[in-house]
Amino acid sequence: MFNPLPKLRWLVEPSFAIIFFALWIVAEIGRSDGAPWPSFPFTVGLLAASIGVARSFPRVALALTGIVLVVQLFVPSTRFIGTTWPIYLAVLITCLIISATAAGRVRWLSLPATAGYFILITGLMTIPSLSDGYGLASWAGVGLPEAHIVGNFLAVLLPSLVSTAAAWFIGFGFRASRLKRASDIKLGEAEGELRSAEIDLIITRERDRIAQDVHDIMAHSLAVIIAQADGARFIGPSRPGVVNESLERIAASARASLSEVRMLIESLVDDPEGHSNPTLANLDDLVLRMSGAGLSATVTQFGEQVTLTASQELAVYRIVQEGLTNALKHAGAGPTARVTMDWRGPGLALTIESSGTPPQQTNTEPHTIKQGRGIYGMRERARLAGGWLTAGSEADIPGGYLVTAFVPTAWSPTPTVEAEMATMPQQGTSTQ
């Protein structure tokens, strides 16, 4: 909804100045007997102008007040007498506005400047030589002997200085309150942007988690299916019996991936009944599936197996699964892989070494493997399991690639990390 008030805010001080001037002119025009005219509208007009420009031009406002007092000091006919002394309240109003709205040194200068003005005003009000011989009577309406000049001066000066300080600090309080409201508004906007960014981050991480889950499930299954289908297509004419065996393995891999995808979809809505993650006990089935797809894979263990947490076992399983899948897809013809699991240290030392006969390259540049979701995902799983993982090509072995990982057995993940590891076969990045 459109709010016009902020745009009209600059009219407040000028409007008040016009009202101030008009009321004093109307109040004094009938009882001045023509004595202070035309000097009276001039001095009142300058003080009213100081109020009107105090917000936009604080230095000009202070200067106008000083001009009025200097003129009154040297031109007796311009001095306020009788009932006109409250016009000096305009000086306090100007000080309050400058304290509330001005920035920098002019705001701090307004306090001593206004105090100095009131010292001069007090002299104009109490010293007989500056008040047509009447002194205090010039504004109080009574005559007092000159012996009381010092007492009169102090009696007027002290309340004036207190009023000056009060006006300045009231303005300062208004300024502090305005700045606090503006700060609260900006803080609210920043918190709103932060909440939006947090929601975007959650959505992005959830998308990445789903993408990694789908990658882990489908990349392995599709690699096995493609290998089985290609093998059956090539050797089917000469060995028809192999076709049925390949089709059975394709069907088994497809059913397994379908089941895992179904559980993944269900987990996005609610915790599915009977949901279970693969463990180290499922490694033999994994190796059998990969062997049936054409990968010569072996698993060698050293030492006695130590119990890992469920999330750590899932991490190790996914690392082995990704390593074997990449070996099948990228090692070339006659791919082989050797998985070594060493339990003899403070944790599980895992290596996956693969080799094969890579296709002939037409250029002379060495064969490189693009780092993608799979390698990054393995590193993240190892990190969340409390360990680390490295992966890279082996130049001295044809089609060689080595994955080395470590998962500590004494490490116990926090509930937050445990939950993240259980739900996130992690933000990864690709196919070897």
TrEMBL record:
Keywords recorded for this protein, A-Z: ATP-binding, Kinase, Membrane, Nucleotide-binding, Phosphoprotein, Transferase, Transmembrane, Transmembrane helix, Two-component regulatory system
InterPro entries: HATPase_C_sf, HATPase_dom, Sensor_HK_TwoCompSys, Sig_transdc_His_kin_sub3_dim/P
TM regions (residue ranges): 12-29, 61-81, 87-104, 111-130, 150-174
Stretches assigned to the Histidine kinase/HSP90-like ATPase domain: 313-408
Signal peptide, first to last residue: none
Keyword Cell division in annotation: no
Enzyme class: transferase
CDD domains: HATPase_UhpB-NarQ-NarX-like
The keyword Lipoprotein appears for this protein: no
Listed PANTHER family: NITRATE/NITRITE SENSOR PROTEIN NARX-RELATED, NITRATE_NITRITE SENSOR PROTEIN NARQ
Name the UniProt record assigns to this protein: histidine kinase
Organism: Rhodoglobus aureus
Lineage: Bacteria, Bacillati, Actinomycetota, Actinomycetes, Micrococcales
